[in-house]
Amino acid sequence: MRAHFWMQEQRKRFERRNEFSPWTVIASNRKGYLKGKMGASYSQTDLVKAWNGNLRLTFNSLYPLEKSFVKGFKPTVGEDKWSRFLIAYATSHKLPLRDFIQTAYMRIPDEAVDYFQSTAYDYWESLNREMEFVTKDSRKRIRKNEVFTPGLARRIFESERNRKSEFPREMVALDACYHIPLSPEDLAKSIEDDNEITMVLTIEGAHSLGTDRATIAEVSRRVQHIKKEWPTPVFFITFAHHFNNKLCGHAHSIPDKGKALLDQTENLNQGFNDNGRRILREFLGLNKKLEKDENLGYRILIDVKHMSARSRKEYYEEVVIPCIEKGDVIPVIGSHCGYSGISTLEKHIERMPQEVDDFCDDSGLFNCWNINLCDEDIEIIVKTGGLFGLSFDQRILGITDKDKDSKRNGIQLLWENIEGIVRSAYSSQNLTEEEKPNIWKCITIGTDLEGLIDPVSPYPTVLEFEVFAGNLIFEIEQARKSGDKKYLSHLTSLEDVRAAVEDFCFNNAAAFVKKHYPRKSL
């Protein structure tokens, strides 16, 4: 995504230099990287870092940037303070301050910001352009990648040769390859091949279909276009995102200080409308009776991250549970989430008005905004053999201002969330004793790296995955030895712990995608 943002409006220029490729590294700001700051000034998981960090299975989200990130908002008379009207005027996309803020914060070129703000910017067109970009070099083995250093001053005063020599794991990939599988058989073969990265395509947000402009009939046709015309399958779609997609309600996701520039109130925390129910079913290949319909193409799974608690509740009650009763088990995915510490979706719905910064559950450990998954979500993930991808965003995981620089901002934070998830399953009254241990097969890495997140400080990029795995082994081993915990009773040795961490880091995700990877119709 970072490379595409930089190059999409200057394609011919990059093609002339043979740099228009997903392999091209946009040179990072190393100070931001070393301090583990928010991932705007540096790349967290470009292909070069992924290759050198031995990442061999990745879920790559195609994401047309939402216009609300770069355009101004309209305050409401009678509801907003006068200062918000002043901020809205000063940061309008029609004035230069907005462009300066966006380029400084998101670290993408002004030409791209101007395009995103223009009437010419179309989500559907952008989605297809990104798909074409990311698939263009699939299965091609490169001898060496290219590097692009943004900014004239940096190109004059920084030596790319020296950077490559000093930081080769960040800058240089040799004899490297990524592979977007065409079929389940192709995927299984690729996963077994350590000489390539298996890249599974997903979509971040149903707004990508152009729901802001297109009729619902056109949106429906676009779902079929993805299934029938795209060269490779899409595995899942994160149905909601940060702003109104006119299909279902999204969860509160922007911190209080971000509200000075961004307004996500429209349709915030609401549920599905009839159009949303239709498009949801069509992604899943279901007709109105919730029966599989071959005319609707292969199944693209639904990721509930960013869905409001109300939307998730409706999805489970209206689609997932009725389908289970019909014998059609649709696995529930939460691709990059934290644990909320809340028992039910109804409690999340009740607490929505209280969601401010540092709003935690009763234990004080977990971020209990309804963007995170609760015990009820975990039950349905286990029941359907789904997948809970653990985010590496420190705010999502429960870091508050008071402990931002504490020792907790590390492996302790990640283990607290993992332990909370497995404890939740083992404590459930709605899961059988046979079902409860399956939670260990339903959890995996779901970092959200490259999503402009503020990562858990010791692990700002995929290059730190090996360190993370070692730290997690130590943390679980200490927990195993420290007391009689039912959810750890199956871990009887250090080797068992290592196997559990290997499952979390790779095997669970690999097994899940092998089981559910779709077969495109010919």
UniProtKB/TrEMBL annotation:
InterPro entries: Metal_Hydrolase. SUPFAM superfamilies: Metallo-dependent hydrolases. This is Membrane dipeptidase (Peptidase family M19).
